[in-house]
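Project channel, design review

CF: Before we commit to the Litomosoides sigmodontis constructs, I'd like one complete example in the thread so the newer folks can see what an input/output pair looks like. Taking Neurotransmitter-gated ion-channel ligand-binding domain-containing protein.
RD: sounds good, go ahead.
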Amino acid sequence: MLYPNGTVWVNYRVRVKGPCIMDLSNFPMDVQTCNLIYESFNYNNQEVRMRWINSNPVYAVSEILLPDFILINITATRRMEKYPAGMWDELHVNLTFERRCIWYFMQAYVPTYLTIFISWVSFSLGPRAIPARTMLGVNALLAMIFQFGNIMRNLPRVSYIKAIDIWMLVSMTFIFSSLIELAIIGSKVKDMENSQRPKKPHCKN
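CF: and here is what came back for Neurotransmitter-gated ion-channel ligand-binding domain-containing protein:
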């Protein structure tokens, strides 16, 4: 639409599928910001000027329901980018998402906590119940390793440590420490039994 003062009104409806670079260091309690940029392809700001129509130009028509994220904020800004061919106006839309972490708590944090608690039950069995304590500790460690592998299989591969990695490694350290304690106690009990065993008398000819 062309107005008498030279203003051109152009209306487009587009469906965009854009990439979003995520930082998963705090996964699964992370907050992600995705950036969408609008700019003219052929014309710099000497020919086309772009600006938002008002102070709140971007909004969601209806509540957006995503399985893994909650849309918590939408911000719109205007910037000017310098290219070799001149200056271009850019309209930025920042979409801030917060991850729904209840699934990860139920599938990762609660089971690992219970596994650690089960491994600590062996402390109440007494120092002489070595077979039962060994079975509890080894089974708890194997269950933790299986849970860790199952969780990591469903996550994106990144080269840095995530919060859930630290949780799982610390959890396995607790269970492994209980096995170390079991080995130390078993050695002490064996030494105590050997010291209390009556010595055979030596026969002199």
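RD: helpful, thanks. The first helix runs from residue 102 to 121.
CF: The chain is about 40% helix and 20% strand.
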